[in-house]
Amino acid sequence: MNTLGEIWIQLFKNGSFGFILLLVINQMVYFVLLMSKTNRSDKYKFAAHNEVKYLKRTANLFSIAIFFYLFGLISGWLGLAQSYEFIFVAFMAFMITFMIGYGFTMYLQYYYPFVLEKRLRAIRFKKLKSSSGNYMKLLNELEEDEFMSDEMIALEDASEADFDVWIDEVSGEKVIQKYDISEKALICSKCNFRTLKERKEKILKDASEFEEGLLERTYNCTYCNHRELKEVKILSWSKRRELEEI
Ligand SMILES: [Zn+2]
Fold it and tell me: Which residues surround the ion ligand 1 when the cut-off is CB under 5 Å?
């Protein structure tokens, strides 16, 4: 084995540790920033916007680290002498890395949203203590209106924002948290919080020229897990055209 090869192998191994270090720093920065938000609606907003971004960066750094590590490892086994062997090893390491990276991307795209939603719910609905040390009560949509301004109620009705009103029943202290809602949420018939979200849509019957179709929508409450099915009519084609002309 030539010395130049050994130096390269060592360099790649160290490179892989370098990227692992970057990944740890990246993830730590995220948690420090998250923890620095004292207001829970700020924390919620930060997590909702940034958690996946930071995780993607972590996954990328991890993939690069794997690439360097594999490159060093396979080169070590083969004892590289020729430059074409370098290319072959790089190609193998890249293919393995690519598969791992692809796995991470799929996980973050399709499975992680459920994990994130659970984490966001935990941030938002965690028990809140008032300044006098009592646990506060979270009011539902029926109870909260009397504590909210008209502007807040209007924003809620327009699905622009959702407000959580917490009351200390002993001291009367009130805390209101505002959440921007990207996905429209409806009021859950079981727990009365505005946390009922559409999950899927299934066409039961297609609409035709003169006949209405039927659509089934499944809703899930992110607060109490209540599930609701709603059937919605789909306009017939002729009716739809008629309405579009108006
Ligand atoms: Zn509910």
Answer: 188, 190-191, 221, 223-224, 226
